[in-house]
Amino acid sequence: MYDFDYKRPSTLDEAASLINEDSVLLAGGHTLLPTLKQRLAQPETLVDLSAIDSLRGVCPDGDKLAIGAMTTHAEVANKATIPALASLAGGIGDPQVRNRGTIGGSVANNDPAADYPAAVVGLNAVVNTNKRAISADDFFVDLFETALDEGEIITNVTFPTPDAAAYMKFDNPASRYAIVGVMVAKTSGGVRVAVTGAGPCVFRQSEMEAALSGDFSPRALENINVSADGLNSDIHASAEYRANLIKVLAKRAVAQING
Q: Radius of gyration over alpha carbons of the chain, in Å?
Protein backbone atom coordinates (compact mmCIF):
# COMPACT_ATOMS: atom_id res chain seq x y z
CA MET A 1 0.00 0.00 0.00
CA TYR A 2 1.29 3.45 -0.93
CA ASP A 3 1.32 6.32 1.57
CA PHE A 4 -1.70 8.62 1.66
CA ASP A 5 -3.29 11.27 3.89
CA TYR A 6 -6.33 10.05 5.82
CA LYS A 7 -9.25 12.41 6.42
CA ARG A 8 -12.46 11.60 8.32
CA PRO A 9 -14.83 14.56 7.94
CA SER A 10 -17.94 14.86 10.10
CA THR A 11 -20.10 16.81 7.64
CA LEU A 12 -21.01 16.47 3.99
CA ASP A 13 -19.71 19.96 3.19
CA GLU A 14 -16.38 19.17 4.79
CA ALA A 15 -16.12 15.96 2.78
CA ALA A 16 -16.93 17.78 -0.45
CA SER A 17 -14.20 20.35 0.24
CA LEU A 18 -11.60 17.58 0.50
CA ILE A 19 -12.35 16.02 -2.87
CA ASN A 20 -9.99 16.61 -5.78
CA GLU A 21 -8.50 14.60 -8.63
CA ASP A 22 -5.99 12.96 -6.26
CA SER A 23 -8.46 11.86 -3.56
CA VAL A 24 -10.80 8.88 -3.22
CA LEU A 25 -13.88 8.32 -1.06
CA LEU A 26 -14.05 5.44 1.40
CA ALA A 27 -17.47 3.95 2.19
CA GLY A 28 -17.49 0.25 3.15
CA GLY A 29 -14.09 -0.35 1.58
CA HIS A 30 -14.64 -3.86 0.24
CA THR A 31 -13.34 -2.94 -3.20
CA LEU A 32 -11.16 0.07 -2.42
CA LEU A 33 -9.06 -1.36 0.44
CA PRO A 34 -7.93 -4.51 -1.44
CA THR A 35 -7.14 -2.28 -4.42
CA LEU A 36 -4.95 -0.08 -2.22
CA LYS A 37 -3.26 -3.08 -0.62
CA GLN A 38 -2.38 -4.46 -4.05
CA ARG A 39 -1.00 -1.04 -5.05
CA LEU A 40 -3.44 -0.79 -7.95
CA ALA A 41 -4.40 2.72 -6.83
CA GLN A 42 -2.31 5.57 -5.47
CA PRO A 43 -4.49 8.38 -4.09
CA GLU A 44 -2.92 11.24 -2.20
CA THR A 45 -5.89 11.51 0.17
CA LEU A 46 -8.40 8.98 1.47
CA VAL A 47 -11.66 10.63 2.55
CA ASP A 48 -13.54 8.37 4.98
CA LEU A 49 -17.31 9.06 5.02
CA SER A 50 -18.08 6.91 8.07
CA ALA A 51 -18.39 9.82 10.54
CA ILE A 52 -21.09 11.67 8.58
CA ASP A 53 -24.29 10.80 10.43
CA SER A 54 -26.53 12.48 7.84
CA LEU A 55 -25.56 9.77 5.34
CA ARG A 56 -27.06 6.98 7.45
CA GLY A 57 -30.58 5.73 7.96
CA VAL A 58 -33.56 3.86 6.49
CA CYS A 59 -36.36 6.41 6.27
CA PRO A 60 -39.88 5.54 5.02
CA ASP A 61 -41.65 8.60 3.63
CA GLY A 62 -45.17 7.91 2.41
CA ASP A 63 -44.94 5.80 -0.72
CA LYS A 64 -41.13 6.10 -0.86
CA LEU A 65 -38.18 4.73 1.06
CA ALA A 66 -35.01 6.82 1.38
CA ILE A 67 -31.83 4.98 2.38
CA GLY A 68 -28.71 6.92 3.33
CA ALA A 69 -25.59 6.17 1.33
CA MET A 70 -23.59 4.98 4.37
CA THR A 71 -26.33 2.62 5.54
CA THR A 72 -24.99 -0.93 5.78
CA HIS A 73 -26.42 -3.92 3.99
CA ALA A 74 -27.40 -5.38 7.37
CA GLU A 75 -29.42 -2.27 8.24
CA VAL A 76 -31.21 -2.41 4.89
CA ALA A 77 -31.95 -6.10 5.40
CA ASN A 78 -33.38 -5.47 8.87
CA LYS A 79 -35.21 -2.17 8.34
CA ALA A 80 -36.23 -1.74 4.69
CA THR A 81 -40.00 -1.61 4.29
CA ILE A 82 -39.80 -3.02 0.75
CA PRO A 83 -39.55 -6.80 1.29
CA ALA A 84 -37.76 -7.53 -2.00
CA LEU A 85 -35.09 -4.94 -1.18
CA ALA A 86 -34.65 -6.27 2.36
CA SER A 87 -34.30 -9.80 1.01
CA LEU A 88 -31.75 -8.68 -1.58
CA ALA A 89 -29.63 -6.93 1.06
CA GLY A 90 -29.80 -9.98 3.32
CA GLY A 91 -28.28 -12.12 0.57
CA ILE A 92 -25.18 -9.98 0.04
CA GLY A 93 -21.92 -11.64 1.04
CA ASP A 94 -21.62 -12.89 4.62
CA PRO A 95 -22.36 -11.23 8.00
CA GLN A 96 -18.99 -9.47 8.04
CA VAL A 97 -19.61 -7.97 4.61
CA ARG A 98 -23.20 -7.01 5.43
CA ASN A 99 -22.16 -5.19 8.59
CA ARG A 100 -19.48 -3.10 6.86
CA GLY A 101 -20.53 -2.70 3.25
CA THR A 102 -22.81 0.21 2.35
CA ILE A 103 -25.49 0.77 -0.26
CA GLY A 104 -23.86 3.99 -1.47
CA GLY A 105 -20.47 2.37 -1.90
CA SER A 106 -21.97 -0.52 -3.85
CA VAL A 107 -24.03 1.71 -6.12
CA ALA A 108 -21.11 4.09 -6.79
CA ASN A 109 -18.74 1.21 -7.52
CA ASN A 110 -21.16 -0.44 -9.98
CA ASP A 111 -19.56 -3.87 -9.89
CA PRO A 112 -21.17 -5.92 -12.69
CA ALA A 113 -21.98 -8.72 -10.21
CA ALA A 114 -23.35 -6.51 -7.41
CA ASP A 115 -26.95 -6.89 -6.25
CA TYR A 116 -28.03 -3.31 -5.52
CA PRO A 117 -27.92 -2.10 -9.15
CA ALA A 118 -30.73 -4.56 -9.94
CA ALA A 119 -32.79 -3.09 -7.10
CA VAL A 120 -32.09 0.51 -8.11
CA VAL A 121 -33.06 -0.09 -11.74
CA GLY A 122 -35.80 -2.64 -11.10
CA LEU A 123 -37.57 -0.45 -8.55
CA ASN A 124 -36.94 2.74 -10.59
CA ALA A 125 -35.09 4.45 -7.75
CA VAL A 126 -33.44 7.87 -7.73
CA VAL A 127 -29.81 8.29 -6.70
CA ASN A 128 -29.45 11.59 -4.86
CA THR A 129 -26.08 13.32 -4.54
CA ASN A 130 -24.79 16.51 -2.96
CA LYS A 131 -25.40 18.17 -6.34
CA ARG A 132 -28.43 16.59 -8.06
CA ALA A 133 -30.88 13.71 -8.42
CA ILE A 134 -30.12 10.99 -11.01
CA SER A 135 -32.76 8.55 -12.23
CA ALA A 136 -31.96 4.85 -12.17
CA ASP A 137 -32.08 4.49 -15.95
CA ASP A 138 -29.47 7.25 -16.31
CA PHE A 139 -27.15 6.34 -13.44
CA PHE A 140 -25.40 3.10 -14.46
CA VAL A 141 -23.29 3.63 -17.58
CA ASP A 142 -20.89 0.69 -18.11
CA LEU A 143 -18.47 -1.61 -16.32
CA PHE A 144 -17.56 0.13 -13.01
CA GLU A 145 -18.80 3.40 -14.56
CA THR A 146 -21.65 5.62 -13.42
CA ALA A 147 -23.02 9.08 -14.17
CA LEU A 148 -21.30 10.53 -11.08
CA ASP A 149 -19.09 13.53 -11.75
CA GLU A 150 -15.86 14.35 -9.94
CA GLY A 151 -16.66 15.73 -6.50
CA GLU A 152 -20.13 14.20 -6.40
CA ILE A 153 -21.10 12.27 -3.27
CA ILE A 154 -24.14 10.00 -3.09
CA THR A 155 -26.28 11.12 -0.14
CA ASN A 156 -29.16 8.64 -0.38
CA VAL A 157 -31.10 6.39 -2.71
CA THR A 158 -34.87 6.87 -2.84
CA PHE A 159 -36.97 3.85 -3.76
CA PRO A 160 -40.64 4.21 -4.76
CA THR A 161 -42.64 1.47 -3.06
CA PRO A 162 -43.67 -1.05 -5.75
CA ASP A 163 -47.03 -2.79 -5.94
CA ALA A 164 -45.02 -6.02 -5.75
CA ALA A 165 -41.45 -7.13 -6.39
CA ALA A 166 -39.09 -10.07 -6.05
CA TYR A 167 -35.37 -10.62 -6.51
CA MET A 168 -33.90 -13.96 -7.50
CA LYS A 169 -30.17 -14.66 -7.64
CA PHE A 170 -27.93 -17.49 -8.75
CA ASP A 171 -24.82 -16.72 -6.76
CA ASN A 172 -21.22 -17.72 -6.56
CA PRO A 173 -21.10 -20.07 -3.55
CA ALA A 174 -17.87 -18.54 -2.24
CA SER A 175 -18.43 -14.79 -2.63
CA ARG A 176 -22.23 -14.74 -3.03
CA TYR A 177 -21.80 -12.26 -5.85
CA ALA A 178 -24.49 -12.63 -8.49
CA ILE A 179 -23.58 -14.84 -11.42
CA VAL A 180 -27.02 -13.63 -12.49
CA GLY A 181 -29.59 -11.73 -10.45
CA VAL A 182 -33.02 -10.62 -11.64
CA MET A 183 -35.36 -8.08 -10.03
CA VAL A 184 -38.94 -8.11 -11.28
CA ALA A 185 -41.20 -5.31 -10.06
CA LYS A 186 -44.75 -4.16 -10.66
CA THR A 187 -44.50 -0.38 -10.35
CA SER A 188 -46.79 2.58 -10.93
CA GLY A 189 -45.02 3.06 -14.25
CA GLY A 190 -45.41 -0.56 -15.36
CA VAL A 191 -43.47 -3.79 -15.09
CA ARG A 192 -39.69 -3.51 -14.79
CA VAL A 193 -37.17 -6.35 -15.14
CA ALA A 194 -33.57 -5.55 -14.19
CA VAL A 195 -30.67 -7.96 -14.65
CA THR A 196 -27.32 -7.89 -12.86
CA GLY A 197 -24.33 -10.25 -13.08
CA ALA A 198 -25.05 -11.28 -16.65
CA GLY A 199 -23.45 -8.36 -18.51
CA PRO A 200 -20.83 -5.65 -18.04
CA CYS A 201 -23.49 -3.48 -16.37
CA VAL A 202 -27.01 -3.84 -15.01
CA PHE A 203 -29.65 -3.67 -17.75
CA ARG A 204 -33.41 -3.88 -18.29
CA GLN A 205 -34.92 -6.83 -20.18
CA SER A 206 -37.49 -4.97 -22.27
CA GLU A 207 -38.89 -8.05 -24.03
CA MET A 208 -39.78 -9.59 -20.69
CA GLU A 209 -41.25 -6.32 -19.47
CA ALA A 210 -43.56 -6.18 -22.49
CA ALA A 211 -44.62 -9.80 -22.11
CA LEU A 212 -45.35 -9.46 -18.41
CA SER A 213 -47.32 -6.26 -18.96
CA GLY A 214 -49.84 -8.31 -20.93
CA ASP A 215 -49.78 -11.44 -18.80
CA PHE A 216 -48.02 -11.32 -15.44
CA SER A 217 -47.27 -15.01 -15.14
CA PRO A 218 -44.25 -17.28 -15.70
CA ARG A 219 -45.86 -18.69 -18.84
CA ALA A 220 -45.63 -15.25 -20.47
CA LEU A 221 -41.85 -15.72 -20.56
CA GLU A 222 -41.83 -19.23 -22.04
CA ASN A 223 -41.30 -18.19 -25.67
CA ILE A 224 -38.71 -15.50 -24.96
CA ASN A 225 -35.23 -16.48 -26.10
CA VAL A 226 -32.59 -14.42 -24.30
CA SER A 227 -29.58 -13.74 -26.51
CA ALA A 228 -26.10 -14.49 -25.16
CA ASP A 229 -24.58 -11.70 -27.28
CA GLY A 230 -22.63 -9.27 -25.11
CA LEU A 231 -23.11 -11.23 -21.89
CA ASN A 232 -20.26 -12.12 -19.56
CA SER A 233 -18.39 -15.39 -19.99
CA ASP A 234 -15.85 -16.49 -17.38
CA ILE A 235 -14.74 -19.40 -15.21
CA HIS A 236 -18.05 -19.26 -13.33
CA ALA A 237 -20.49 -19.41 -16.25
CA SER A 238 -20.60 -19.04 -20.01
CA ALA A 239 -22.62 -16.33 -21.72
CA GLU A 240 -25.09 -18.97 -22.90
CA TYR A 241 -25.55 -20.26 -19.36
CA ARG A 242 -26.15 -16.75 -18.09
CA ALA A 243 -28.70 -16.13 -20.85
CA ASN A 244 -30.64 -19.20 -19.71
CA LEU A 245 -30.39 -18.13 -16.07
CA ILE A 246 -31.99 -14.76 -16.84
CA LYS A 247 -35.13 -16.51 -18.05
CA VAL A 248 -35.15 -19.08 -15.25
CA LEU A 249 -34.72 -16.48 -12.50
CA ALA A 250 -37.25 -14.07 -14.01
CA LYS A 251 -39.86 -16.85 -14.05
CA ARG A 252 -39.07 -17.67 -10.42
CA ALA A 253 -39.39 -14.03 -9.42
CA VAL A 254 -42.79 -13.75 -11.12
CA ALA A 255 -43.93 -16.98 -9.48
CA GLN A 256 -42.90 -15.67 -6.06
CA ILE A 257 -44.81 -12.43 -6.61
CA ASN A 258 -47.91 -14.33 -7.67
CA GLY A 259 -47.30 -16.78 -4.78
A: 18
Domain containing 17 equals: 1-51
Give the domain-ending residue among 36, 51, 66. Answer: 51
| CATH code (residue 16) | 3.30.43.10
Instruction: Work out whether strand 58-61 and strand 64-68 pair parallel, antiparallel, or are unpaired.
Output: antiparallel
Cα(132)–Cα(255) distance, integer angstroms = 37
Decide: 161 and 81 in contact? Cβ < 8 Å.
yes
User: Tell me, what amino acid is at 141?
Assistant: V
Strand partners, 142: 145
Euclidean distance between CA atoms 7 and 58, whole angstroms: 26
Residue 79 lies in a domain: no
Number of domains present in the structure of the chain: 2
For 196-227, how does the pLDDT look when each residue is reduced to its tens digit (9 = 90+)? 999 999 999 999 999 999 999 999 999 999 99
125-151 pLDDT tens trace: 999 999 999 999 999 999 999 999 988
Question: Which residues lie below 8 Å from residue 118, measured CB to CB, with a gap of 6+?
Answer: 88, 167, 178, 181, 182, 183, 194, 195, 196, 202
Q: Beta strand 145-146 with 133-135: parallel, antiparallel or unpaired?
A: unpaired
Q: Which 3 state secondary structure label does DSSP give 111?
A: coil
Sign, CA torsion 102/232/236/33 = negative
SS3 call for 121: helix
- Report the DSSP pairing between strands 145-146 and 140-142: antiparallel
